[in-house]
Structures are given as C-alpha cells and as structure tokens.
C-alpha cells in the first residue's frame, strides 16, 4: 500500500505557503444558531460568502505541549524549517463585514483579486475577485456578530 510520507506532506505545506492564503467568511444558514451542522468534506465553497481577507501570517509550526500557538487541535510552536503544519493568521479590520452575522469561515488558496483592485488592499468582497480559490479548511460556527469597534483575529493550524 502506498502512503503519503511526512516529507511529501511537508512539500505540500511548502507549496501552499508559497501562495497567497485568504480566509473567507460568510453568513451560512440562519438556522445554524447554537448547533451548527457538520462540515461536508465535499464542500468547495462557503454557503453565503461575505468577504475575503488576505493572511497576516503564514508560517511553519510543529506540535509542542508548551507552544505559544493554541488552537482547538492542540498547541504548536513556530518552526524555522518547513514542516507539514502551517500556522495561518488573519486579522480583520474594524469595518470588514460590519453589521453582518457570520456563521462560516474557510481558508482558501488560489484566491485572485481583480486586476483593478488597489495595491495594498487586504479585504475583498466577492465581486472584487476574479477567482474565489480552492477551499482548504471549512468551519461552521456559532453566530459571530460583526460590531463597530471590534477587530477579529482568526488563527488556524492546517496539518497536511
């Protein structure tokens, strides 16, 4: 039986890290209140996308019980050498999706803004993109209301 080796998984992580990585967030379904449904592994997009934010940081990391990165899957520390784990951080600004109720998030690669978007723009509405990209990670969540004066930061570790 053939397997995907750790070095092969690290190569995949390196390929992803070399590209712009975005986080998409969306409204999902209004019925997803306290108990969101399980995420379908066959998903290719969010249900109702509101916007996309370019990553603040994409770095290699490794499991560490004392690590400074804490996510639902465990603790990690940053690594100077490539690993099969990618730490992705997204910092949303105050005005991003203001007034929206968000119930779904996704990490995307291959997202392509339209050519006429200003240089230095990090947040995009769906109509400002030529291509949404490929969905790597999907999470349905309890509702998050985007209120004025609040900046959101999301952190994920994706293991290949």
Return residue spans where pLDDT drops below 50 for at least 5 consecutive residues: none
The end-to-end span amounts to: 19 Å
- Shape descriptor reads globular
The Rg value, from CA coordinates, equals 16 Å
Strand order, main sheet: write it out. 9-2-1-7-11
- What's the count of strands? 12
Which series of helices and strands comes N to C? HEEEEEEEEEEEE
For the residues shown, what is the average pLDDT?
96
Q: Tell me the β content.
A: 35-45%
Helical content class: under 10%
InterPro entries: BW3TFN (IPR058040)
How would you explain this protein's 3D organization?
Pfam families: BW3TFN (PF25691). The chain has one helix at residues 6-17, and strands at 21-26, 49-54, 57-63, 69-71, 74-78, 85-91, 101-109, 112-113, 123-124, 129-131, 134-145, 153-159. The chain is mostly beta strands and 160 residues long. It has a domain at 22-59 and 88-150. Strands 9-2-1-7-11 form a 5-stranded antiparallel β-sheet, with no helix packed on it. A 5-stranded antiparallel β-sheet has the order 4-5-3-6-12, covered by helices on one side. Strands 8-10 form a two-stranded antiparallel sheet. The mean pLDDT is 96.
Provide the fold topology.
Layout: H1 6-17, E1 21-26, E2 49-54, E3 57-63, E4 69-71, E5 74-78, E6 85-91, E7 101-109, E8 112-113, E9 123-124, E10 129-131, E11 134-145, E12 153-159
Antiparallel strand pairs: 1-2, 1-7, 2-9, 3-5, 3-6, 4-5, 6-12, 7-11, 8-10
Question: Can I get a quick summary?
Answer:
This protein has 160 residues and is mostly beta strands. It contains 1 helix and 12 strands, in the order αββββββββββββ.
């Amino acid at each position: 039986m053939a397997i995907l080796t750790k070095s092969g998984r690290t190569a995949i992580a390196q390929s992803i890290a070399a590209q712009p990585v975005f986080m998409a967030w969306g409204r999902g379904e209004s019925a997803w209140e306290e108990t969101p449904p399980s995420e379908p592994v066959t998903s290719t997009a969010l249900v109702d996308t509101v916007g996309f934010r370019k990553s603040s940081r994409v770095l290699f990391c490794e499991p560490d019980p004392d690590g400074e990165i804490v996510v639902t899957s465990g603790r990690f520390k940053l690594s100077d050498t490539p690993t099969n784990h990618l730490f992705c951080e997204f910092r949303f600004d105050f005005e991003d999706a203001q007034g929206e109720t968000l119930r779904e998030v996704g990490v995307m690669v291959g997202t392509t803004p339209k050519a006429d978007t200003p240089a230095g723009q990090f947040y995009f509405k769906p109509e400002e993109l030529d291509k949404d990209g490929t969905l790597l990670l999907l999470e349905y969540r309890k509702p998050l209301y985007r209120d004025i004066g609040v900046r959101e930061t999301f952190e994920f570790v994706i293991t290949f």
